[in-house]
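Let us practice reading a record.
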Amino acid sequence: MKKNALMILAALLVGTVAYAQAGLPPGPGRGPHGFGPEGHGFGMWKVVTGAPYSADVSDQSVETLADGNTIQRSTTGHVARDSQGRTYVQQTITGGPLTQDGPKTITFISDPVAGYSYVLNANTKTAIRRAIKTPPAGAKPPRPDPGTRPDSANRVETDLGTQTISGVTAQGKSVTHTIPAGAMGNSQPIVSTSQTWYSPDLQLPVSSTRTDPRSGKSTYNVTNIQRGEPPASLFQAPSDYTIQDAPAMRGPRGGPRFQGPVQ
């Protein structure tokens, strides 16, 4: 049971982490509301080299129910990337069904140089290892969230200019997406808004908020950004951990599912 819970948590967080560094704002259904995503996190299709850094991150969400009750979730952690594109993500999740026994801390390491990614479990001192697959030539990136598709007739994007956030220059944009009345059985239009501030130098969002009447409000922030090479030990499974190879993931038609390098 505990092993299954770890695998479920890992799958959720991989999806979560996959979006923030790809520049997408938080959105429903991408994790335990966690990085970025329901979040914001690390892009899965591109390895960023030559831009090392380390930082603290937080992702907070509040969902208000019809009766006034609220559901709050939070994820905090530390992230780092070296000059060769290796990444380290340590997250502590509070709130949600996976944390009924208390907050959960989990660590992800992606090493595109060696060709492996790891999920570390500090409680059992195990590292679940998976080979990083290279996307086939001409492969398209994952389908974007409907609220972010540039061809949406009900999507309005506004350039917010630039400002300094956590010591780095960031470019801002806001997006308003409207689902017309009757499009999905809704009696009134559904309007969601998002605002993202993206650092071109680091190639990741440093601040993002999203408000959606279906899922509530989520806020993602990167703070305490340190430019420079992080310690090499962050990108290695500890020597006292047991390494276990993860089972192959299968696609919807029974074929292997591509899981690209975590950015």
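A brief commentary: The CA atoms of residues 20 and 40 lie 3 Å apart.
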